[in-house]
């Protein structure tokens, strides 16, 4: 007698049946969803190629000494084994801290799953349209799992919920049925990296490796399911990955019947810094303009006070010795915005920190309380910045939510193009038009690899 499935097992099966319908082209994909996939995929490819041009990424690739293979290592001129491409492209996707994210999912669904799907699609000779459907499945499954998970307090979500998304997308490419996709998702839920915020707050780039590990694990989960399509893994019992966080079954499948696509509600980043720093950076840019219009300069600033919510209140480092130390510092993002008028990737170079430290050192960050008013009762990522000046009234700027949220504060199409340009600014061989051409080419009924190889 078979065991009665738990609510979570039933939810995973429902999600797998939906994923199978999408993967086989039996589900209607709205035009708005299709456009969102274009936007997210273009962002993923641009930031990956952009990071590949950096000295740090070139050194990492050299250390791996990759053998020849069937998948493109973007921006390097190399074709490498599938697993190497999934890992290394995943690392590059997040190395500049400019990759697309999803607030409700608490992380980055595309970076956690697309490198796996793209690498496997090349090796299998999958068509462009089938690859696009697999990417949609990967994003939606991963994003839904992230949204449904109440993560343990110290868990960093890189390489966690996205493993199941990568597994589902790869299972679609392998032609698995709903039962096989269910097992792939289940196995993916049993394979995440056991992550912590400690290395992140220490400024370590090892957290980028979690994305690579998660993508590679997603491929492994799909291959496992191809051999054992009916196996019960219990990857969500008692929690995602055993300890990362508990998952709510109802939330996992919420909106499936109503045609909800989470890929439409993500955010894009105009700063090379953690998303939790973007509200403060937006406020700093506005304050910079107000300061200039008042006839004052940064020399008049005595202190910078930030009121924030959530994890932003913990990102308080006023000095940094690595790029990642800067990425996860509200004082860095605010100082860069005030001093330079941007938070570009070049600003996080520790060799350039001297120009920012005088302002960063006077930035005080605190968590909002009830006394700070209704701004901080909203569900976004609000921030209040106050410049305390010598012999002048303070300048205060409130930001309800950072720019770039597809639903709340979307960028214009021209601004989105500008983000692609910014991601590729250090790349000599490719530009925005090359990236967009690859995205468009994946609509054609020909092998996806023919398009993807153009960004080698």
From TrEMBL:
This is MmgE/PrpD family protein. Residues 14-190 form the MmgE/PrpD N-terminal domain. InterPro entries: MmgE/PrpD_sf, MmgE/PrpD_sf_1, MmgE/PrpD_sf_2, MmgE_PrpD, MmgE_PrpD_C, MmgE_PrpD_N. Belongs to the PrpD family. GO terms for molecular function: lyase activity. Residues 271-405 form the MmgE/PrpD C-terminal domain. Pfam families: MmgE_PrpD_C, MmgE_PrpD_N. Coiled coil: none annotated. It comes from Rathayibacter rubneri.
């Amino acid at each position: 007698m078979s065991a009665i499935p738990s609510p979570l097992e039933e939810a995973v099966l429902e999600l797998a049946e939906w994923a199978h319908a999408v993967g086989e082209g039996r589900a209607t994909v709205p035009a708005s969803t299709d456009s969102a996939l274009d936007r997210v995929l273009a962002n993923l490819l641009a930031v990956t190629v952009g990071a590949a041009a950096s000295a740090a990424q070139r050194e990492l690739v050299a250390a791996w000494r990759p053998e020849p293979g069937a998948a493109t290592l973007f921006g390097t001129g190399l074709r490498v084994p599938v697993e190497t491409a999934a890992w290394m492209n995943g690392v590059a996707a997040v190395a500049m801290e400019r990759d697309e994210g999803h607030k409700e999912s608490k992380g980055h669904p595309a970076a956690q799953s697309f490198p796996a799907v793209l690498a496997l699609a090349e090796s299998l000779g999958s068509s462009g349209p089938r690859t696009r459907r697999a990417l949609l499945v990967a994003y939606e499954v991963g994003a839904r799992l992230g949204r449904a998970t109440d993560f343990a307090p110290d868990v960093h979500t890189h390489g966690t919920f996205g493993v199941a998304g990568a597994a589902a997308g790869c299972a679609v490419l392998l032609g698995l049925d709903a039962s096989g996709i269910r097992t792939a998702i289940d196995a993916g839920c049993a394979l995440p990296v056991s992550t912590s915020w400690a290395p992140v707050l220490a400024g370590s780039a090892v957290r980028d490796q979690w994305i690579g590990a998660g993508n590679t694990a997603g491929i492994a989960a799909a291959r496992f399911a191809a051999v054992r399509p009916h196996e019960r893994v219990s990857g969500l019992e008692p929690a995602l990955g055993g300890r990362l966080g508990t998952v709510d079954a109802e939330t996992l499948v919420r909106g499936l019947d109503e045609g909800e696509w989470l890929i439409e509600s993500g955010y894009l980043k105009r700063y090379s810094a953690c998303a939790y720093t973007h509200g403060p950076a937006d406020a700093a840019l506005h304050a910079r303009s107000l300061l200039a219009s008042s006839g004052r300069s940064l020399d008049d600033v005595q202190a910078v006070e930030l009121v924030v919510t959530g994890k932003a209140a913990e990102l308080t480092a006023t000095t940094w010795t690595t790029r990642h130390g800067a990425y996860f510092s509200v004082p860095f993002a605010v100082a860069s915005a005030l001093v330079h008028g941007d938070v570009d990737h070049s600003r996080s170079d520790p060799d350039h920190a001297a120009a920012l430290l005088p302002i960063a050192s006077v930035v005080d960050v605190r968590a909002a309380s009830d006394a700070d008013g209704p701004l901080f009762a909203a569900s976004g990522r609000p921030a209040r910045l106050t410049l305390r000046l010598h012999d002048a009234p303070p300048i205060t700027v409130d930001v309800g939510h950072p720019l770039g949220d597809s639903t709340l504060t979307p960028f214009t199409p021209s601004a989105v193009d500008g983000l692609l340009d910014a991601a590729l600014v250090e790349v000599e061989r490719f530009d925005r038009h090359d990236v967009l051409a690859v995205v468009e080419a994946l609509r054609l009924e020909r092998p996806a690899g023919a398009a993807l190889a153009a960004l080698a």
